[in-house]
Amino acid sequence: MKGDYVRVDDELEIYYEQAGEGENTILLLPGWTMSTRVFERQLEYFDQSEQYRFITLDPRAQGRSSKTSSGHDYEQHGRDLQSFVEALQLDNFILGGWSFGCLAMLAYIHQFNAERLSGLLMLDGPPRAAAEDNLVDWASYRYDDADGRLAFYTEARLSDPEATNREFAAWMLEDKSEENIRWLLDITEQTPDEVAAALNTTSTMLDYRTELRALEGKLPLWYLVRADHEKKVNDWAFNNTPSARVQAFGEHLMFWERAAEFNAALAEFMRRCWP
Questions:
Q1: Beta carbons of 46 and 19 less than 8 angstroms apart
Q2: What tens digit of pLDDT does each residue of 151-160 get?
Q3: Which class for 1: exposed (0-12), middle (13-18), buried (19 or more C-beta within 10 A)?
Q4: For the whole prediction, is pTM greater than 0.90?
């Protein structure tokens, strides 16, 4: 596996890593404040592949990408992704997003369409950030923020980042060991707190359900979510994209904690996209 940079403009260099030398490419986007490091076990899995190439990147101001002064919304992340795709001349590839990486992925499709894609993976992330009831609707936040989640991940990230980041890291994990929490803290702390808050605040204005529905029957769709989201995602898929495969296991970081199970399911999805 190897890492490199793509220069987007005078302000932004995007760091990315890739493994494998195959013609068939899958590109996975990390979530809010996360980086390529969360996909280390997928990079290892594809490292010697002659059939597939696995790519992941650090969004602007996350990980090792440039800490830009502006552009901290997911529509801009979608434009950054278009620049990255053009720079690497990607075509006929599977695109996946994890967590709010799904918003960046759907923002790309909203602005530039899905003509280059062979398949789409929603990895425990919603097509919209906020809804009436996040216990029933496929969304992370409530419009009224009655549960305080939006305030916690925005205002508290600014006022008490240490406690907020620790709770965020623990929430993602099945195995809440200090070692695992410290590993995630090291990643999320690379994103400036003001950037993290801006991404969360602006996310609530986005709704890409229409873009996702439009892919029904056009691309293989796979929604892999943590176990306690299975019902609401199944319900949404049944009513909106009935061809989508819905699968659920583990917690938010299931692809890292249960890498063997995830990698096997990913390989099966790739065979479905490229028979």
A1: yes
A2: 999 999 999 9
A3: middle
A4: yes
Residue 1, pLDDT > 90, answer no
The beta-strand segments (E) located in 144-229 are: 221-225
Q: Where are the domains of the chain?
A: 2-141+206-273
In 113-267, the DSSP E strands lie at 117-123, 130-131, 141-142, 221-225, 245-248
- Residue 165 makes CB contacts below 8 A (sequence gap 6+) with 157, 185, 188, 189
Nearest 5 degrees, angle CA 103-CA 241-CA 78? 20
Give kind and range of the element (H or E) at residue 88. Answer: helix 74-88
Tell me what pLDDT residue 15 has: 98
Which one of 3.90.1150.10, 3.10.450.710, 3.30.70.1400, 3.40.50.1820 gives the CATH number of domain 2-141+206-273? 3.40.50.1820
What single DSSP character describes residue 58? P
pLDDT digits (tens, 9 = 90+) for 46-88: 999 999 999 999 999 999 999 999 999 999 999 999 999 999 9
